[in-house]
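Notes to self after the Tuesday call (sharing in case useful).
The group wants a holo model before anyone commits to mutagenesis around the pocket. I volunteered. Ligand is NAP. Logging inputs and output together so the record is complete.
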Amino acid sequence: MSRDRVPTRMLPSGDEMPLIGFGTWRLHDDTLRAALDAAIAAGYRHFDTAQAYGNEADIGDHLAEYDREEFFITSKVVGSDLAYDRVIRTCRESIDRLGTDYLDLYMIHLPNPAISLRETLSAMATLVKERLVRNVGVSNFDAYRLSCAQHIADVPIAVNQIEFHPIFQQPGLVEYCTQTDVVIEAAAPLGRGAVFSDELVTSISEKYGKSNAQVVLRWILEQDIVSLPRSSNPAHVEENIDILDWKLTEDDRHALDDHPRDEAIYTMPTAHWENDDYGIIH
Ligand SMILES: NC(=O)c1ccc[n+]([C@@H]2O[C@H](COP(=O)([O-])OP(=O)(O)OC[C@H]3O[C@@H](n4cnc5c(N)ncnc54)[C@H](OP(=O)(O)O)[C@@H]3O)[C@@H](O)[C@H]2O)c1
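Result:
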């Protein structure tokens, strides 16, 4: 499969971001290497990692043998490192571990109301000016926080990476992002496995002779939303990008739109405050 076949979204920088990316949370060592081999062979050129995933160095080692320009690489800074100097330092560390000169997209992994957003975004603008980062994004931002970021940032907020799958659709937030030209990336697009036992998804999949993963990822693609499926299984990796040659009918698309859609898998009503990678206090 050619990478040119994966449709893209243009970001404010003029860069084209492939609408299917490879999620890498919890992938390490040999499992990660085998998954990356399968992903590159299948046509993925967009990789999503983060400081908190602890796998940037392995990803960097693996991608080193390819032409950097072929790839779209995202990393994220954790909520506890959002002070100006820490953002700059953390980004440089991610870039070093990934063995690259720049990130295509750098994002705030989750909001931290204890640290000034203005300060964080000022650091992001510095990183863009220094050509270490090509596009700036946020993740897990609700519409209020995103709107605040848009009003104070000196660089466009290109992307909001949020939980999105048929069982948790966040329609108000999606609408706000769409209205303000913020590209949505679907984190946990397979609901971390929840879509595999879903009756509606299963009944639609059976009609098309496709897997539940393929139907959900196709439904996301048809909304011009980026998906970031993760798999440790090379056959799944390949299956998840093999969604470009067919379409859902309007009725099936709408049936998925109308699925009961308020069941979050990872989005929490309150943040973790401390003691893990996603805590917001060091
Ligand atoms: N910004 C954030 O806060 C945030 C939060 C969550 C996720 N993300 C990003 O989004 C990515 C994806 O989310 P996720 O990793 O939470 O979960 P996910 O992609 O929704 O689901 C991954 C699970 O689905 C299984 N799977 C994948 N393809 C399959 C297939 N074709 N058939 C059967 N099972 C399949 C995988 O198992 P196998 O390994 O056995 O295939 C794995 O257990 C992450 O890796 C990360 O990059 C970001």
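Two things stood out.
The beta strands are 8-10, 16-18, 22-23, 46-48, 72-77, 105-108, 136-139, 157-163, 183-187, 226-227.
The chain has one domain: 3-194+224-247.
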